Amino acid sequence: MTSHSLLPRRAVSLPLALALALVSLLGAFGLPAAAAAAPPAAVQPDSSSGVTSDVLPTTQIAAGDYVQDQAIVGDTVYAGGSITSARPAGAAAGTSESARTNLLSYSISSGALGSFAPAVNGIVRVLELSPDKSRLYVGGEFTTVDGATHNRLVAFNTATGQVDPTFAVNLGGPVYAISATSSTVYVGGQFTQANGVNRGRFAAFRASDGGLLTAWVPKVGDGQAVRALLVAPGGSVIAGGQFATIGSLSNSTLVTAPGSVSLDPTTGVTKTWAVNKVIKQYGANGGVLSLKTDGTTVFGAGFWFGGTDSNFEGAWAVTPDDGSIKWLADCHGDTYDTTIANGVVYAASHQHDCSNIGSFPQQRPTQVEWRANAFTADAKGDVLPNSFSPTKFKDYSTYQAPAVINWFPQFAQGPTSGYYSGQPTLTIESTSDYVVVGGQFPTVNGKAQQGLVRFGRPGLAPGTDGPRVYFSDPGSANTSVGTPSVKVVGGNTVRVTAAPWDRDDLVLSKVDLLRNNVVVKTYNDLTAPWWQTTVAYTDTDITAGTTYSYKLRMTDAHGNTTTSNAGSVTPSGTNLADSTYSDQVKADGAANYWRLDDPSSGTSITDWAGSTDLTRASGLGLGVAGAIGSDTGASVNATVSASAASNNGFVRAPNTFSVEAWFKTTSTSGGQVVGFGDVPTGSSYRHDRQVYLNAAGNLVYYLDQAGTSRSITSPKKYNDGAWHHVVATLSSGSGMVLYADGAKSASWSSITSGRAYGGFWRVGADLLPGTTATTSKYLSGSIDDVAVYPTALSGTQVKDHYNDSGRTAAVAPTAAFTMSCDSLACSYDASPSTPDISNAKTAAATAAAVSAAPADGPTPTIAGYAWSFGDGSSATSMKADHTYRSAGTFDVTLTVTNSAGNVSSAVQTVDAVGNSVPVAVFTSKAKGKKLTFDGSKAVDYDGKIKKYKWYFGDGSTSTKAKTSHTYKGTGSYFVKLAVTDDDGATGWTSTTLLTGGSSLASDAFQRKADGWGKADKGGAWTTDGDAAFSTDGQQGVLSLGGAGEGGTASLARVSSTKANVVGDVSIDKTGSKDGTTAAYVLRQRGSADYRAKLVFVEDGKLFLVVSRVVDGKEKVIKTVKPKTTYEPGDILRLRATISSAKNATIKATVWNAGTKEPSAQLSVKDSTKALNKAGSVGVWGYQAQAATNAPVQLDFDNLLVTAS
């Protein structure tokens, strides 16, 4: 996957080195090599397209009012909502007020209030323009306009500002959504009648006179509102809302559509819409609120604030024809509206975590919400694995994402009660020059601007919004530039840190750090995202007792220069003494070094190598005796609060690192020393890169590989009450390595990465993996001198660190081994192991070593070997053979002990592979009733084919690789070839063949594709409905993801009054009480068809059903219960025939593949007029509305269609 850079708003030149530096910044130590093939291009809107963050003076509304929607015609912006009055920009509330009743207009170029002032007696929810912008449609909860009756929908002439009397309609409930063509006005909401006729929250009217269109009758369930409509490019009507299912007033069949759906513009029938198989936004706590298009893409946005119905909040982009996902803006935070201008998608939202697409992370402990933000209109990379509240939010890392653009205007929170409580922004619209935002905010960027605001591109906006030192909450009215953080970190050392940023420029052209008004450091072209500390300066030119003041002078890409307030300190001269150990830690490149020597009265823990100070929780104490000399350390009290982390220390979990610590404990409950988790306080959900003790006192180093636990364990126990040194490293070259007391303790060379997510380094308590032998996740004891490195320390460096503490590392062995396997039989050789780590040989597997005592006495030798083969078996020789009982993947551990009593271990993973099943393939040729067969291409990848067995479908067989067979009659036959290898495994393949005639269509589905592609004969398959169609190289797959889902695959080129359809059908699980249906469509004409249905129900029972569908209504003609039964995965043969045009005879038969075909089990006649001519054929699948066994997969194969 690719990390996403945060994009500058305008065209600042970004060389590749700077783009790469930004990706490195967002990933702290850098992304794993395997995951960062290339960062996304550092592209952004050019200087003439992106709007600035300058607040342009705009008409204001009264406090307590809100703007729900806007529409733009030329220089006029129409705004509707709950509005009582308006006043000019700059006017205080209650002054210069002009009465307005729920609808107003203002100038987009000046912001001045317009004269448009109709009296609308209820809330306006939606505004929509006709394609030529001559008419403004207004929908909502009103019943009169200027005293005349207009129930919930009215049209205004935009030239005159008057109601258009030619469009007169009547809705029986609220209108929330409108989309119009030149001829048709589509409406959605929460009404049950339109123009006095029953409707199911949808209606369509003639634009010419408001006449109700009778054919367009989609329906959603009671209480399920329609919130958004869009006539998409291509003509489909896309609907969004809080509905879970959708159907029709003329058809009781419901289709699953969780929040969005595509509808035919004439019939209202559902069309393929792929996004609602992935994104679910519906129900009382979720829904799709906005649908927009730029002419090539449909952009959706919605909300979800609780419950389990939905799975996404934010914006998404899809293709207009079938809803295929282009990108997902996996930013957590409800999104209320979007608009697209010049390649930028602007959003009204309250997004608070965009780390899954490479931008700002969740802020803790106080959540920060951005109420307006922007993305690229095109995808720029991949969504990263979800790192925010994984129990609630789905992982979308298989999809692409846009890049976040650095446009962050700051809106103060709206009213804390009432409509969308607290949400300040509700609507956003744009032209090529302006972006306009409406809602219920009191201020923007700290300036009074009630409910409406404009932003303009450079030239129309002054571009004077300058940089700041630190982010302040978007809801704050604080307009201060801010003050840098200044801290004494030693008697004669001062550290200055800051996170300078700009609301509409990512790159600051120049940042000067001034000490006592003299520049001491300059940063040029500083990439400055608001959430990252990018200025960190250590000042050692200090005189004790002197006061020093520091401030920043910052210049953005527009040339705006701001100067911060000054932060001052007076160093005391009392310096924490460095030691040989601390000097070596810093010399070896520690990125963070927490000595834990801070005053016991404080809560801050100083980072002596970087700028990420920790905040300690109450269960972690300071001031206890430490591990190094006379330094102090920290105590931990076996509670969840016995930890420390930085709320601002969010980084992407690195795949090259070292983490180092000292610990002391006598606990028999275990607990974490140091690790990585997705939250800075409390218990993490995602957590790995952890070092902890198990209940027995062994050290464990744990990684999580996307749900697969990987851990290595020290052979020795360390809960003896003494100080011990531990280092865990990860790298692509050496994998996992665990060191204890200066020497290797365990390793796993093939494990080179952990889970990809964002989080925090935590000292002390956190949740541990559930399978570990601990009785507590919280350590009781002491911790000291914790360090994190962006590299994997070498064994020599680790040994030097231990020795620099005043101790001496013991001589330890190196465990290493080679292995080879033949099927289940494996041989292991430990001869690469060495008794002394300093004499280690190069081996296939790197080893581990652990010290037990100083290396006094004679040179050690290897005294013993201990194997654990991963299946409960063991051995104690240097070389060992082991045969596994069954195929599988096993973790093999070698533990080596030298003559000094020191031990080491090494782990490797072995794949023991059993006999592979041979692959049967054959070809055939027909000449009349005689067919020749060739199975000689069958293959056994680990042996030889020994036996062949043909089954010709008429009771005859053969045992030759190549053979022929003459059938007695014409027709279709099920032919099967079984091949057996030299180990007795059998594989088989089958197909349906036709003798003595020609076929209308056939398909063996020997291809892989989304959709069903092109049949072997009969042309391309066309699919419809909400089921997912694919081919896997063996059969045609129809996936039914939920109750009420269904779909049809048709061969439109086939047209016949007679059809004989035969093929294989299977289901992957037992049907539910109400059944899962697989069917042949025997004759289809328009929206009418005959179906022969096979219904899978409980207990392996089947039903055969013949039905017809006319005008969207299905009528069952006949049902029988055959003797044939099934189990999941069984292959059933289904044959159905239809003869003659005007008085059709329909027959159906089902039987188990490989058995003799019975006579017809169902026979019926029908003469429906709508179906008395030739039609096409196809297949259909459906999951009952009340089914409880979803998802279900139906497989179709060996399909043959003839006219006899």
TrEMBL record:
Signal peptide start and end residues: 1-35
The keyword Signal appears for this protein: yes
GO terms for biological process, alphabetical: carbohydrate metabolic process
Domain Laminin G: 629-821
Domain PKD: 859-910, 948-986
UniProt cross-references to SUPFAM superfamilies, sorted A to Z: Concanavalin A-like lectins/glucanases, DPP6 N-terminal domain-like, PKD domain
Domain of life: Bacteria
CDD domains associated with the record: LamG, PKD
InterPro entries per the UniProt record, alphabetical: ConA-like_dom_sf (IPR013320), Ig-like_fold (IPR013783), LamG-like (IPR006558), Laminin_G (IPR001791), PKD/Chitinase_dom (IPR022409), PKD_dom (IPR000601), PKD_dom_sf (IPR035986), TAT_signal (IPR006311)
Alphabetical UniProt keywords: Disulfide bond, Signal
PROSITE patterns linked: LAM_G_DOMAIN, PKD, TAT
Name of the protein described by the UniProt record: PKD repeat protein
Native species: Microlunatus antarcticus
